[in-house]
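Subject: design request, 254 residues
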C-alpha cells in the first residue's frame, strides 16, 4: 500500500492527532454498521425509529429488547486491527484523542486512553426518570427498574432528538480546532451534529484524512482520502510512517 509522502511526514511531525470514528471502524469486529440492513427480528424497524425517547415511552419493552439484541451481537466482538492501530498510535504521537460516535466501547478495550463517546455507551444503563446510573445485568423485569426511584432503566446512549453530553461535545470541538491531523474513519457522516466535526476541523485549517471504503460527503474536504477498510489501511499507514523514519516504534518527539 503506498501513501503520499506528505501524509507520512505530517504523521511523524504531528504532536496532536484527533481520530473521529463511526460504525465502520467496528465493522471488522463483526458489528453491523447502522447503514447495514437490520436483520432478522428487527428487519422491519429502522434504527431511527427505535433509538428515540418517543419510541421508549411508547414501547419500552421493544426498545429495551432491541438494545439487549444489539448487546448480544457485540458481546463476543473484540477490537480489530483498526482499533489496535489507533491505540498503538499513542506510543508514536504525543497526544491521540479518539472522538467516537460508536457505543460499543471497543476503542477503550483496544487500549486507547483518551476516548470521547459522543453518543454514549451501550454497556451502561441509566434511569429514564432520575437519570442515575444503575446496573441492569441481573434484572428479570423488562425494562429493569431503577434501584433509586423505581423508574424504568434505559441504555446510556444518546437517542435521536436528544442532545449530546455538553462536555463531550465541547471537548470534541476544541480538539477539532487544534489537531495537527484530523482522521475521519468509518463514518457515513449523516448524523448531526457529530458529522459536522470534520468540516469544522477543516474550517479551522486542520488537515482531514478520510478512511472509508466508500465515498462520503467529506471526501471533498479531506486533504487525503484513503479508500479501503480501516483494519487494513491504518496498520499499513502507521507502519509506513514510522518504519520509514527508522523509529523503532518510539515517538519522534522527546
Ligand atoms: C440532536 C446512539 C438536538 C444510539 C446514535 C438535520 C440536520 C441536523 C440534525 C438533524 C437533521 N435531521 C434530524 C436531525 C437530528 C438527528 C440526525 O442527525 N438525524 C439523522 C438521521 C439525519 N440528530 C440528533 O437527533 C442528535 N441530537 O440533534 O439534538 C437537540 C439539541 C438540544 C436539545 C435537544 C435536542 C443525536 C444523534 C445521536 C443518535 N444516536 N447512536 C444507538 O446507537 O442506538 S446515532 C448512530 O448512528 C451512531 O452513533 C452513529 O452516529 C450513526 C451511524 O453513523 P455511522 O457511525 O457513520 O455509521 P453508518 O452505518 O452510517 O456508516 C458506516 C460507514 O462506515 C460507511 O460510510 C461505510 O462505508 C463505512 N465502513 C464500512 N466498513 C468499513 C467502513 N469504514 C472503514 N472500514 C471498514 N471496514
Ligand atoms: Zn431512578
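Subject: RE: design request

Done. Sequence follows.
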Amino acid at each position: 500500500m503506498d501513501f503520499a509522502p506528505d501524509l507520512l511526514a505530517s504523521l511523524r511531525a504531528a504532536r496532536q492527532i484527533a481520530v473521529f470514528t463511526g460504525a465502520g471502524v467496528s465493522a471488522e469486529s463483526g458489528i453491523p454498521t447502522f447503514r447495514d440492513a437490520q436483520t432478522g427480528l428487527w428487519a422491519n424497524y429502522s434504527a431511527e425509529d427505535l433509538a428515540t425517547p418517543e419510541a421508549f415511552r411508547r414501547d419500552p419493552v421493544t426498545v429495551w429488547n432491541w438494545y439487549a439484541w444489539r448487546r448480544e451481537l457485540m458481546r463476543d466482538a473484540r477490537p480489530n486491527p483498526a482499533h489496535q492501530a489507533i491505540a498503538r498510535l499513542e506510543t508514536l504521537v504525543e497526544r491521540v484523542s479518539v472522538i467516537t460516535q460508536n457505543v460499543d466501547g471497543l476503542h477503550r478495550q483496544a487500549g486507547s486512553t483518551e476516548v470521547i463517546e459522543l453518543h454514549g455507551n451501550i454497556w451502561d444503563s441509566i434511569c429514564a426518570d432520575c437519570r442515575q446510573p444503575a446496573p441492569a445485568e441481573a434484572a428479570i423485569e423488562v425494562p429493569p427498574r431503577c434501584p433509586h426511584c423505581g423508574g424504568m432503566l434505559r441504555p446510556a446512549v444518546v437517542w435521536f432528538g436528544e442532545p449530546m453530553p455538553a462536555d463531550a461535545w465541547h471537548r470534541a470541538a476544541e480538539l477539532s480546532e487544534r489537531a495537527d491531523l484530523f482522521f475521519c474513519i468509518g463514518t457515513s457522516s449523516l448524523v448531526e451534529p457529530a458529522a459536522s466535526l470534520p468540516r469544522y476541523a477543516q474550517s479551522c485549517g486542520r488537515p482531514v484524512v478520510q478512511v472509508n471504503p466508500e465515498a462520503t460527503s467529506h471526501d471533498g474536504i479531506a486533504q487525503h482520502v484513503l479508500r479501503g477498510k480501516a483494519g487494513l489501511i491504518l496498520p499499513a499507514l502507521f507502519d509506513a510512517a514510522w518504519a520509514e523514519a527508522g523509529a523503532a516504534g518510539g515517538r519522534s518527539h522527546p
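The radius of gyration is 19 Å.
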